[in-house]
Amino acid sequence: MLKEDILKHYVNEAKNETSSANATRKSQKKKGTPVPPQVVLQPLSKRNISGDGGKAGMKGGINEGLRLCELQYGSYCIWHEENREDMKDSMVKKLKDQLFVARAYYPSVAKIPAQNMLTRDLRQNIQELERVLSESTTDADLPPEIQKKSERMEATIAKSKSVTMDCHNVDKKLRQIFDLTEDEANFHMKQSAFLYQLAVQTMPKSQHCLSMRLTVEYFRDDSFDQELPVKYSDPTLQHYVIFSTNVIASTVVINSTVMHARDSMNQVFHVLTNGQNYYAMKHWFLGNTFKDAVVEVLNIDPFIPDYYDKTTPSHLNLPTEFRVSFHGINNASAMHSRTQYISIFSHSHYLLPEIFKNLEKVVVLDDDIVVQQDLSTLWSLNMGQKVMGAIQICSVRLGQVRSYLGESSFHKNSCTWMSGLNVIDLARWRKLGISETYWKLVKEQVSKKEGSAALASLLTFQDLIYALDNDWVLSGLGHDYGLSTQSIKKAAVLHYNGNMKPWLELGIPKYKVYWIKFLNPENQFLNECNVNP
């Protein structure tokens, strides 16, 4: 059970945001000034670890109410619509509706002396339904003659509607019932959205079990000694870096990359995790082989104190995800609204030059991707004077999120970029002092209390991004139900950005098949912990 005060806080917070937005709109309209399109940028599930696109395939086409819902609650609304079940216990719901209407008419009918018979029928039917509903919560609990009772109530209500009476009282009563029902529906919507976010941010019990089992086994079994430290720092090999605290997610990334590689002998994977998950990761990757590739597991915690200060979190940060919503607040229609999901580097990514001092080039992979083609051609890219190769998102430009970037100078037409698949020239990174630039921007935004420190990465790499071909990565598998099978098969990398990750029960079922096939269902630890995404 969730504590009631938590839910109340969530509901009150939403109400305050709504009333504040309405007040702003009213004041702007009174002044007669034009209202610019509104940009709402909200972080998705916090993936910071310490010890929510399109809907082209939505059912029934684009639903305006659903789009308005998404602006407020994000991908929860998409998930809710796609997982909507047929109404259960429809007769119970119908009886409740009839009871509401009958109660609304009864006081007015009872005041008319000539309608004593109708008043008696209404009272009897109301009492009868109240008795039935007090004993029945589902259709299966209802008595056999309930259909006849419902028909009698329907006939009595029809007679009440035909009687000339003071409609003001009926209208008042119905409005009261409607307001109560609407408030209850809104509360349940906020509650459901809250529980959805809780499910997104909570590690599944099976994966927690897996991590604990692997940690215990690491200290029990000291027979593993397969590490190859010479390969870990060899700059002539292909080095892939993964920030992750999720054993099975990082396994899928490595397995899918190796399975599609022409030559896995030259592949070296570096999994950067925190102290809490280090031993579980270590035992897992020492106990599993990935063709001829080697895997190094590193605890990032010892590297953090040298760089982080009191203004930044002193723990592993995974890529930060945001939901960016654009909508014109002068236009009541949601048809002119759109939502885009982006993921960018976090604080931990700026430790790369320090961690890999002997390397000049790495490819950074997020742990929510699946590789479908050979990635070796990335190592022959000529990026010129650029520092990083990334997929650019020109549907979101820096000028559109300027209120979140503070007073820093930037080109408003510059495209944003995505993490997921990133080619990094570490030599040029060090030469240009990218990490130092980032920390300076973060400290400025924190000290001035302006902008969003989480978006400092967008400014740090301004004019330093080499745009990868869009065929490299298909994003949206963690929030967009409308991606075509053809586009999925064509992409070299599938990115499950968004809240509905493939290892969660909330994951989109039709996309899970591309992810789950890279897990070994016969693995002893997975079976013992019932890990079955």
Helix and strand topology:
Elements: H1 4-31, E1 38-43, H2 64-73, H3 75-82, H4 90-110, H5 116-135, H6 146-162, H7 167-201, H8 205-220, H9 229-232, E2 238-243, H10 247-259, E3 267-273, H11 275-287, E4 294-299, E5 320-327, E6 338-344, H12 352-355, E7 361-365, E8 369-371, E9 388-397, E10 415-425, H13 426-432, H14 434-448, H15 456-460, E11 465-467, E12 473-475, H16 485-490, E13 493-495, H17 509-516, H18 524-528
Parallel strand pairs: 2-3, 2-7, 3-4, 9-11, 12-13
Antiparallel strand pairs: 1-5, 5-6, 7-10, 8-13, 9-10
Helix pairs in contact: 1-7, 2-3, 4-5, 4-6, 4-7, 5-6, 8-11
Enzyme class: transferase
Pfam families: GAUT_1, Glyco_transf_8
Subcellular location: Golgi apparatus membrane
